[in-house]
Amino acid sequence: MTAFEKSKANRKARQERNKAIRAKYGSLNEWKKKCFFSMQTLKARGWNKELVKKLLGKYDETTSGSYRACDLWLKNRVFEAEKKPGVKAAMKLTLKRSEKIQEAIFDVEDRIKTEVATWDIKLITPAEAVRRMKKRPTYKSLPLSFLKELSLSHLRQATCAELKPKVLAQPKYQRIYRNAVSARVHNMSLKYV
C-alpha cells in the first residue's frame, strides 16, 4: 500500500467514525464534552501535570480551534486512574496547594488595590483625549462630533499610558498593578458616560 492510499484509507476511516459520532451525540463537540476531560477540568478535580504524565500519559483526543488546540483525556481512563491507591491523597494535596496559592494572590491583589487607591490619578478628559488624537495624522479627518462619541476605552488608555512609568517602576506584581490601575481609571471614567 502506497503512502497516498494509506492516507486516503485513514481519511475514510476518520470520516466514518465522525459520522457515527454525529449520529449518536449530534456533533463532535458534544461527544468531546460528554466523553472527555480537558487539562483545565483535570486541574479543577485535583490533578497536576506530573500526575497526568505518570498515570494518564498521552492524550486521547484534541480539540482544534482557531486559537489553540486543547488536549483531552477519556473520562473512563481518568475515573480508573483515580481509583488507584494514593491518587486521591495526591489530588487533595494539589487542591490544598492551589487554594493556598489563590489566597496569597488575593492578599497581594487587595494590598495593591489599597495602594493604588491612594495614588493621585488625574483622569484625562474627553477633550484632552481628542486633542491628543488630533495631533496624530491618522485622526486629522475626525469631526468634532467625535468628542461626544468618545468611548471609555480611549480615556482609559490615555490615562493608563500616562501612568505606565509609575506601574513599570514597581519591581514586583506589574500585571496586578496594571489591572488595579485600569480598574480604578475605568471607575473614574464612568462619570463621562
Helix content: 55-70%
Q: Which geometry do the CA atoms define?
A: extended
Q: Helical stretch count?
A: 10
Largest pleated sheet: 3 strands, antiparallel
Structural class: mainly alpha
Query: Taking Cα atoms only, what radius of gyration do you get, to the nearest Å?
Result: 26 Å
Question: What is the chains' assembly state?
Answer: single chain
Task: Describe the model.
Helices cover 68% and strands 6% of the residues. It is mostly helical. It folds into two domains: 3-84, no CATH class; 105-192, no CATH class. Strands 1-3-2 form a three-stranded antiparallel sheet. A hairpin with a 6-residue loop joins strand 2 (61-63) and strand 3. Helix 9 (152-168) packs antiparallel against helix 10. The longest helix is centred in the middle third of the chain and has 31 residues, at 87-117. It is extended and about 70 Å long. 11% of the residues are buried.
Briefly characterize the structure.
It is built from ten helices and three strands; from the N terminus they run H-H-E-H-H-E-E-H-H-H-H-H-H. It is mainly α and 193 residues long. Strands 1-3-2 form a three-stranded antiparallel β-sheet.
